[in-house]
Amino acid sequence: MNFADLKRLYDQPLFDLISQSRAAHLQHWRGEQVQRCSLLSIKTGGCSEDCAYCAQSAHYSTGLEREDLMPVDEIMTAAKRARAQGATRFCMGAAWRGVREGTPKFEQVLEAIREVSQLGMEVCVTLGQIGPNEARRLKEAGVTAYNHNIDTSPEFYPEIVSTHTFADRLTTIAAVQESGMSVCCGGIVGLGESPNDRLRMLEVLSNFDPAPESVPINCLMAMPGTPLAEQPPIDIFDLVRLIAVTRLALPKARVRLAAGRARLSREGQALCFFAGANSIFYGDKLLTAENPAADADRALLRQLDLAVEAEENPPAVREISD
């Protein structure tokens, strides 16, 4: 979808927009179902990248302690706990620039993936920049999806990161697509970008071939010590508009209400679900940021009459003939 079409959608009266996005959502998905994903930081802090939003960057004094790569048995303990709590997708994230085939840390990650893949959950990883060889081996080990967000528009990206380029992000995504893994790719809002930057981000995402399997929409969690520590939160109606346009631009993708939910009201989250979000990160912590408690999420989903996807019966996309 091109920018002009996205802009026309976005600029509609809010109720008109979310009515359209709700119809698109119900056409392709079982409207009452929400996927729960668990996210674990398997290597925290000390990252060489200078992403302005990230508490794990070694460029900033955020008070976050650097930790080594987590042992496989500890990862498995966390994965089993996530499965027991109802997660159907387990995501592992590591704070580094990237990994290369043949290094000890890459082999250790592959071992963890092989173990986790035996638990019956989807396996997602986010390991920074990778090439075709790394992508192939990750898929062989059992990874179903690779997360690599583009964060924002190509034009605004240099304001957020200087240690790599937007093109570097696209190179990794191309390697993931070539391997046959699904792409999980979205962005962050509230970085100081304009609404047009958010739509440019969506334009890039909607023109991936194949389209992303899931699109996380993260709200900035302004972390002390980072350059964006004083950024105000995004307005809830701006977030709902973006989710609605994302659903219309990428009707078959899971739209994941990701980081920042701890700062959204229950009513705000409900509106996001109505507009087309159908997946959440589940658990008390997202890498280094707070997240709603699992009990609170279960209570909210029950009150909204939203079903969680059972591990043994993950729903397929409901195709509607033209």
Describe this structure in words.
37% of the residues lie in helices and 16% in strands. Residues 311-322 have low confidence and may be disordered. The chain is an alpha/beta fold and 322 residues long. Strands 1, 2, 3, 4, 5, 6, 7, 8, 9 and 12 form a ten-stranded parallel sheet that branches.
Q: What's the structural blueprint in terms of helices and strands?
A:
Elements: H1 3-10, H2 14-28, E1 33-43, H3 72-84, E2 89-94, H4 104-116, E3 122-126, H5 132-141, E4 145-147, H6 166-179, E5 182-184, E6 187-189, H7 195-206, E7 214-219, H8 236-249, E8 254-257, H9 266-275, E9 279-281, E10 285-286, E11 289-290, H10 294-303, E12 307-308
Parallel strand pairs: 1-2, 1-9, 1-12, 2-3, 3-4, 4-5, 6-7, 7-8, 8-9
Antiparallel strand pairs: 10-11
How would you concisely characterize the structure shown here?
The chain is α/β, with parallel strands linked by helices. The chain has 10 helices and 12 strands.
Q: Please identify which CATH superfamily we are dealing with.
A: Aldolase class I
Mean pLDDT: 88
The total of helices stands at 10
- Please describe the biggest sheet, giving its number of strands, its sense, and whether it closes into a barrel: 10 strands, parallel
Please tell me the total number of domains.
1
End-to-end distance, in Å?
A: 19 Å
Strand content: 15-25%
Low-confidence blocks of residues = 311-322
Q: What is the 3D shape?
A: globular
